[in-house]
């Protein structure tokens, strides 16, 4: 039963790491022994280990996850002895601090965080100089594991170079804000929109002003409103007051029409 429970837990962790991979490390059980995992992680940034790739193995007890695993580093690093049990709070050296909720991901992250610390006499710890660790970091890229056959050059994808965009480069669409159109474009668009929306009112205004303008034109020219007939002789003097009255009426109609248009009634 213990092995069955441990197996289920191990397979679940393997599936979780496969579905949620990290750019900083990778880990997987061996094909012939799921209780032995091999992992690779990048040297922490800002330390002598930066640029290096470090490989190790984790052996899980049959009672896992109720008992802690053992952790070994296989790549020469200048920080831990090769193939010696590493003393961590998440390792078998400290079963009293182990939590069953922890797993492979927790172990590797803890090891990465602990890597730049001083050995201070801890088991399997080494205190090489920074220059020696840098040299080993460079050599680690050419190291291959004799057990799982994984080479560090292929263990993790290359770290992408940071591309610094020049100020003239456009930001990606998701970072672009809505930009106000140029003033000229806004005016043109506004003019186009307003002409489209106001045109019916202009047509209405022209239709309403046509009779009044006709009246005013006829009155100013001295013509009668009736076409096809001429005024009787002697009617010119009498018609003058009428033309003035027609002109006044026409002007009144024009003013009323303009006011109605301005108020939006037309």
Keywords:
Ubiquitin Conjugating Enzyme, single chain, 266 residues, 6 helices, 4 strands, four-stranded antiparallel β-sheet, alpha+beta
Describe this structure in words.
The chain folds into 2 domains: 154 residues, Ubiquitin Conjugating Enzyme (Roll); 69 residues. The chain has 6 helices and 4 strands, in the order H-E-E-E-E-H-H-H-H-H. A 4-stranded antiparallel beta sheet has the order 1-2-3-4. The longest helix is centred in the last third of the chain and has 39 residues. It starts with a helix and ends with a helix.
Task: Quickly describe the structure.
The protein is 41% helix and 10% strand. It has six helices and four strands.
Structural class: alpha+beta
Alpha plus pi helix count = 6
- Could you spell the SSE succession in H and E letters? HEEEEHHHHH
Biggest sheet features = 4 strands, antiparallel
Write the layout of secondary structure elements.
Blueprint: H1 2-19, E1 25-30, E2 33-42, E3 53-59, E4 70-73, H2 104-114, H3 130-140, H4 152-155, H5 183-221, H6 236-262
Helix pairs in contact: 5-6
């Amino acid at each position: 039963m213990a092995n069955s429970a441990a197996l289920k837990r191990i397979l679940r962790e393997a599936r979780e790491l496969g579905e949620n991979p990290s750019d900083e490390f990778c880990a997987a059980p061996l094909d012939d022994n799921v209780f032995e995992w091999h992992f690779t992680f990048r040297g922490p940034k800002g330390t002598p280990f930066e640029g290096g790739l470090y490989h190790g193995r984790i052996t899980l007890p049959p009672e896992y996850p109720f008992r802690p695993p053992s952790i070994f580093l296989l790549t020469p690093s200048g920080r831990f002895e090769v193939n010696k049990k590493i003393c961590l709070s998440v390792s078998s050296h400290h079963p009293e601090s182990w939590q069953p909720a922890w797993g492979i991901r927790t172990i590797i992250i803890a090891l990465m965080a602990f890597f730049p610390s001083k050995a201070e006499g801890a088991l399997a710890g080494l205190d090489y100089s920074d220059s020696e660790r840098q040299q080993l970091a460079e050599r680690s890229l050419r190291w291959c594991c004799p057990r799982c056959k994984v080479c560090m050059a292929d263990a993790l994808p290359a770290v992408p170079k940071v591309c610094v965009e020049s100020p003239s480069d456009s930001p990606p669409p998701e970072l672009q804000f809505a930009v106000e159109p140029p003033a000229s474009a806004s005016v043109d668009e506004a003019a186009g929109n307003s002409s489209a929306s106001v045109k019916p009112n202009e047509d209405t205004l022209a239709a309403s002003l046509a009779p009044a303008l006709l009246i005013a034109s006829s009155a100013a020219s001295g013509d009668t409103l009736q076409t096809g007939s001429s005024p009787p002789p002697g009617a010119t003097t009498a018609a003058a007051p009428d033309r003035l009255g027609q002109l006044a009426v026409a002007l009144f109609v024009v003013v009323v029409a303009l006011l109605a248009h301005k108020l939006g009634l037309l």
